[in-house]
């Protein structure tokens, strides 16, 4: 069908809107990158910062040579990789039986799990529970309390329900048990939704800081976002980076903050494009089918 004038105008409007939206989304990153590579005078200049007019790598040098930031980076990588892998494993093992209509009392189990989405124990009971479990100053506190996301597990259950039963029946005829069916048939077929949920979990783990602030006192177990909070919000960047001239550090407050922000955000920015192609497909299929 030949496109009408109205549809062409709508396409032009849609493209213009998406271009503007992309600019709005990208500019904060470009701005912070420019500030991080600027001299103090350039960083304090009013107006739009698309590129540094006066380049200085002093802020990045201070950030990349700071031992605390690499300790936090290592703890964040551990938390993100191990936490995401464990979450996907346990959510898959929980979602698979819930997707089967022959599971006894399936509706009761589902409603019991959904109940946890709306009600929680509160901060103080949760802290006491974590303490009694011996998870204070333990890196497992980053993983175990958030091991299963109810919302994500329900999406995964709906995706599993959409897989034809004939595939599993044929595998059972060949002698496969439920675990083998899950890991060798169901999960490989669920790659789009698993990639989407992995991205959600990874971003959540990477950005989390509150639990580390509450449950971790050992500086060697703190995550990168806690260090970022100290630099950007509480204003401790002078004491954290003051290994040389204090006057030099004072002048580079804003570039150092920007460099720390960029250092924290870059890993997720780099990983996202590799998972983005699965994002829409996994979200739509997992939420609409079942």
UniProtKB/TrEMBL annotation:
PROSITE patterns attached to this UniProt entry: ABC_TM1
Topology in membrane: Multi-pass membrane protein
Cellular component annotations (GO), alphabetically ordered: plasma membrane
Matching SUPFAM superfamilies: MetI-like (SSF161098)
Ranges for domain ABC transmembrane type-1: 73-274
Subcellular location: Cell membrane
Family classification: Belongs to the binding-protein-dependent transport system permease family.
Protein name as catalogued: Carbohydrate ABC transporter permease
Organism: Paenibacillus oralis
């Amino acid at each position: 069908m030949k496109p009408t004038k109205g549809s062409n105008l709508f396409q032009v409007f849609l493209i213009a809107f998406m271009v503007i939206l992309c600019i709005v989304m990208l500019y904060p990153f470009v701005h912070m990158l420019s500030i991080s590579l600027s001299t103090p005078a350039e960083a304090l200049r009013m107006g739009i910062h698309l590129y540094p007019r006066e380049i200085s790598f002093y802020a990045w040098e201070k950030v990349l040579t700071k031992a605390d930031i690499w300790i936090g980076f290592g703890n964040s990588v551990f938390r993100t990789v191990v936490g995401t892998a464990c979450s996907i494993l346990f959510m898959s093992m929980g979602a698979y039986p819930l997707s089967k209509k022959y599971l006894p009392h399936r509706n009761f189990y589902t409603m019991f799990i959904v109940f946890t989405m709306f009600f929680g124990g509160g901060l103080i009971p949760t802290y006491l529970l974590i303490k009694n479990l011996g998870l204070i100053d333990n890196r497992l506190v980053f993983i175990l309390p958030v091991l299963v996301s109810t919302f994500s597990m329900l999406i995964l259950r709906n995706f599993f329900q959409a897989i034809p039963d004939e595939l599993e029946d044929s595998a059972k005829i060949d002698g496969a048990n439920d675990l083998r069916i899950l890991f060798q048939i169901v999960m490989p077929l669920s790659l789009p939704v698993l990639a989407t949920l992995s991205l959600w979990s990874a971003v959540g783990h990477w950005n989390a800081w509150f639990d580390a602030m509450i449950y971790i006192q050992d500086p060697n177990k703190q995550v990168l976002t806690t260090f970022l909070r100290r630099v950007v919000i509480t204003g401790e960047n002078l004491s954290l980076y003051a290994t040389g001239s204090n006057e030099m550090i004072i002048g580079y407050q804003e570039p150092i903050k920007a460099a720390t922000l960029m250092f924290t955000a870059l890993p997720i920015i780099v990983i996202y494009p590799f998972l983005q192609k699965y994002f829409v497909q996994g979200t739509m299929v997992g939420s609409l089918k079942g």
